[in-house]
Amino acid sequence: MGYELYREVKVWAPPSLTHREKLTAMVLADDANDRTRLTYSSVVDPEIMRQAMVPDDRSMRRIVAKLKEEKVLEHAGGGHNGRTAKYRFLHLAPATSGAEMPGENDPATPAVAGSEAPSYDSTPDERVGEKDPPTGGVAGSFSAGRRAKKTRPTPSPPTTSSSAAPTGKPASAEPKPRKHQVADDLATAFWGHHGKGRAQSFIAIRQIIRTAISNGVPRDDLARALDQVAREGRSISGATLDIALGNLRRGAYQNPSDQDVYDEDLI
């Protein structure tokens, strides 16, 4: 999945594109390869058109023609004798910009006011399947570990021995948290609630969640977006999460506390 390419299109797409044309380009970028920049699925694939909110094949072909005209895409082969047409994304970022893309190191945006995100802190059901990750603790243990109280060493009585033990070191070393612990805990809890019968593997979903957390998406906002995408029956991807996050920040979804479908342990 082309998350880096998706972000490039999201930031540097030509301003002349309409909202639907830009959304289509972002969905195609999410389905493309970051290294080769080539699309994988057909542009008229039903799932691609559903995610891009394009009603029919004719409308999709008009949008693709506009993206080629605006130098976003180029035809890279196929499209004849039953072969899937391939399109390559052209480089959209300015050639002289060696800096990081806007938003790459921006501070995390605050959570939506008045909304409560699902905690995803419950232990996953053991019957989920063979793709379950090894359980390394309950979600939220990262912050608890950081608040662990350090005990000062008890001073030892003076001694005449020249080999006295050095003082000032804590009695026990505090365990170092894993690099992706917040993302992995969120992925584990999500899989426990929505993983049964899902076509995507746990590893693929965990990598998407890691990437989103690394790019500064607040954990609580991401948890709500994951829950909304899963309830709508969509696959988890950079594009679907971005759409859900946008809808959440505009208040398009109800407050979870108003929905009977939420269990008590998710509020």
Describe it.
- Residues 159-173 have a biased composition (Low complexity).
- Residues 124-133 have a biased composition (Basic and acidic residues).
- Residues 96-181 are annotated as: Disordered.
- The protein is mainly α.
- It has 2 domains: 3-89, Arc Repressor Mutant, subunit A (Orthogonal Bundle); 116-125 and 178-267, no CATH class.
- Helices cover 37% and strands 3% of the residues.
- The chain contains 9 helices and 2 strands.
- It has helices at 3-12, 19-30, 46-52, 57-69, 141-146, 181-194, 202-214, 219-231, 238-249; strands at residues 73-77, 86-89.
- Strands 1-2 form a two-stranded antiparallel ribbon.
- Helix 2 packs across helix 4 (57-69).
- Residues 106-117, 122-132, 134-148, 161-165 and 257-267 have low confidence and may be disordered.
List the SSEs and their pairings.
Layout (H helix, E strand, L loop, with lengths): L2 H10 L6 H12 L15 H7 L4 H13 L3 E5 L8 E4 L51 H6 L34 H14 L7 H13 L4 H13 L6 H12 L18
Antiparallel strand pairs: 1-2
Helix pairs in contact: 1-2, 2-3, 2-4, 6-7, 6-8, 8-9
